[in-house]
């Protein structure tokens, strides 16, 4: 396990939720995670925040967070994961109100853990038309309408690699993560 508290990635959104600024280290993180082509600053700045948040449930959560942070003029901190096929990243997202309803998002890597490559998370894998939901916050996968499991357990439960191609991932939000985020928002002082 690698503890890394000095990696913080920052972006600002204006009152219309358009991205107006990225930290200097943004591109290096995108390159490291095979996202450089679609996530260069010139393609992001000026775009809507909503273009980069997948899944209706996740968008709904962010809408609630932004509304509460702006109306209360108080920050909130949320924990989440940002995994690659070979690394589990545990992060803290600070959502900070600034002047003129601008919001600063600070994503700080708290720790990383190496793991065996999870082919399901590899962007270069050929996908089928089937969809499975992955939680935008904890990265668990829905194995039923109400049950979510860690990726390795879900792969076995759903027999994902028994098929010729792996399914597409669609983002959702498990009840546990939604409830934890709502508790954080209610706890804003």
How would you portray this structure in words?
The structure is a single chain. This protein has 189 residues and is of the alpha+beta class. It has helices spanning 26-32, 41-44, 56-72, 151-157, 175-186; strands spanning 2-3, 8-13, 19-22, 76-81, 87-97, 103-114, 127-135, 141-142, 148-149, 166-172. It has 2 domains: 2-117 and 174-186, PAS domain (Beta-Lactamase, 2-Layer Sandwich); 119-170, no CATH class.
Name the average pLDDT.
Answer: 90
Q: Give me the CATH fold name of the largest domain.
A: Beta-Lactamase
Proportion of residues in extended strands:
25-35%
How far the N terminus sits from the C terminus, by CA atoms, comes to 33 Å
* CATH H-tier superfamily of the largest domain: PAS domain
What is the level 1 CATH name of the largest domain? Alpha Beta
- CATH architectural designation of the largest domain: 2-Layer Sandwich
Largest sheet: 6 strands, antiparallel
- Structurally, how many domains make up the residues? 2
Rg from Cα: 17 Å
Poorly predicted runs of 5 or more residues:
1-5
Q: What is the number of strand segments? A: 10
Our count of helices gives 5
- The helix-and-strand class reads alpha+beta
Q: Which word captures the global form?
A: globular
The ordered H/E elements are EEEHHHEEEEEEHEH
Helix share, percent: 10-25%
